Request: fold
Amino acid sequence: MSCQARERVVNLAPNRIREVAELGFHMPDVIPLWFGESDRPTPDFIKQAAVQALADNRVFYTPNSGVPALRDAVCDYHAGVYGWEVTRDRVTVTASGMQGIMLTMQALVEPGDEVVIVSPEWPNAAGATEVMGGRAVEVPLTLANGTWSLEVERVAAACNARTRAICVNSPNNPTGWVIDEDTARELLALCRRRGIWLICDDVYNRIVYGRDHAPLIAAMAEPDDRVVSINSFSKAWNMTGWRLGWIVAPAALEKTFQVLTEFNISGPTAFVQYAGIAALRDGEDFIADNRADLQRCREMVLERLAAMPGLAATRPQGAFYAFFRVPGLTDSLAFAKRLLTEAGVGLAPGSAFGACGEGFLRLCYATRPETVAKALDRLEGFFSRKAT
Reply:
């Protein structure tokens, strides 16, 4: 008798970012810029809210959909930041943005369904699709004159009778592309015409340069449109290790998400949810200050990369990554491993984000400027040696 798991799960491709990181963890003096994570700790006011929740014995089971106070705080947050009125029955609290993606795929994707994914994109959305027996179909962003854009006609051409959903991440990881309002409305109209779900990964929505937030497609939709917005506390509030997020979806999905949450985690961690309330209600100053720090770091990274021989980095409009092409690169995974051993810098291979990411590397600059500068010094030395 075989002890093997389901064939589809066994055959899932490993996460190439994690593959580089696992190798680098065992190397001394590596500068790790592979994950999408700030090295700045969670703000004290959020941590103190968790401490107070523990003191108040917020340590028991919570409702599957999350504590009502956090669901209400999510509604208030959307109203205050976006002018978007959301009712509590549309909000489900999740144990991370990733769990929100997985719940959504469990709710929507049948074996044989197709999910069109705007790429390059963080690989887990495609992976979650495949876990459910679906097929991920990549539609690449267009890169022209140093700018990324989305051609909705190409998305439409990739859809067919088996297409269950379109998945879009804006601001985008890894490119920093941000969807504009006209394109967002065009994409929404396509989904309405075809009866296709639109799954929006909005975790970087507040990390956008020159404005307070990126366009939010779900805020343009009607309450019963087939639109799911998935968000997380990880990026905008520096809460990666807390594992907390939320979904906003049509109210008709509330019961489905409740049942699926019961079978996955029963409910998010109780005291962590009260930290989330503090983040939403008191976090605007932190978000603004953090965004300003990231913008300064972005400028340094772009200036330094532009001076290195042959590299072509696009200017990210949002998120906190430099996604740059290396001339002649055909195996970014092997090259990222080489950078570990020869330069002591850990970057994510572009191929981790889909086939259209091959030839690129991703550098996360959500790190102290002196650390990023040290990594850039090493990269400069490496590419200078490579060019001679």
